[in-house]
Amino acid sequence: FAGYISQVLKNYTDHACDGEYVSLRCPHRTTISIQSSFYGRIVPSHQMCPSRYPHSYATLIKEDVACSVGTSLQKMLDECQDRRSCQFLVNSRLFGVDPCPGTGKYLIVWYKCRPNEYKSKVACEDDKLRLSCKKSMVIAIYSAIFGRTQGGSLECPYQTLGMPMIECQSATALQLMIKRCHGKRSCSIYASTYEFGDPCYPGIRKHLNVIYTC
Question: GO terms for molecular function, please (predicted)?
Fold first, then answer.
């Protein structure tokens, strides 16, 4: 159980040079959730993915180290999002127009493994949040946010009263929810600044949003 949880909570990174296969994989009962992606080159080839051209040719072509493709995130979402695993050969043809022909490029992908079945619960500031699982099952916390998100929360409408529309979130919410609830059949916690501290300006209404699975 502890091994499964650490795999689910982990942020994965994978990379592949042009001409190599990139391979993303998640554990049983989870699927790939792409967080970010980069395709291009921003560091010289002696630091990452050495040039595949002969040395004499490589010296004639000046390497572009400010080269990136804007379609890499969408391509990774198309290829891998919500799958258990995915694998494909990395080359510039995958991503449309090559912004820097003659420069060897690489793909870096950041992803998480999301449980196939998960629940989401919200508590408004100063309300109690209760989580519970059926008999013989225990709670596994996937993510936790305490504060205010850009889009707000439908369950907890904000009284704006001239407050700026800002995003502010507690940096310790996930660790606290793991400590209180991980591996237990049920748990409860108040969505309060006493528990989580105040990541926002005074007077800004906050909420606690927890995603978990049993």
Answer: carbohydrate binding
pLDDT one digit per residue (tens) for the chain, 214 residues: 556 556 666 788 999 999 999 999 988 778 898 888 999 998 887 888 887 655 544 444 567 788 888 889 899 999 999 999 999 999 989 888 888 888 889 999 999 888 777 788 999 999 999 999 988 888 888 888 898 876 666 677 765 555 556 778 888 898 899 999 988 999 999 999 999 988 888 778 889 999 888 8
Fold of 119-213: Jelly Rolls (2.60.120)
Measured CA to CA, the distance from residue 181 to residue 197 in angstroms comes to 18
pTM strictly above 0.90: no
Q: Do β-strands 12-17 and 106-115 pair in parallel, antiparallel, or remain unpaired?
A: antiparallel
Please tell us whether the domain made up of 1-115 is placed in CATH 2.60.120.740. Answer: yes
Strands 106-115 and 119-124: unpaired
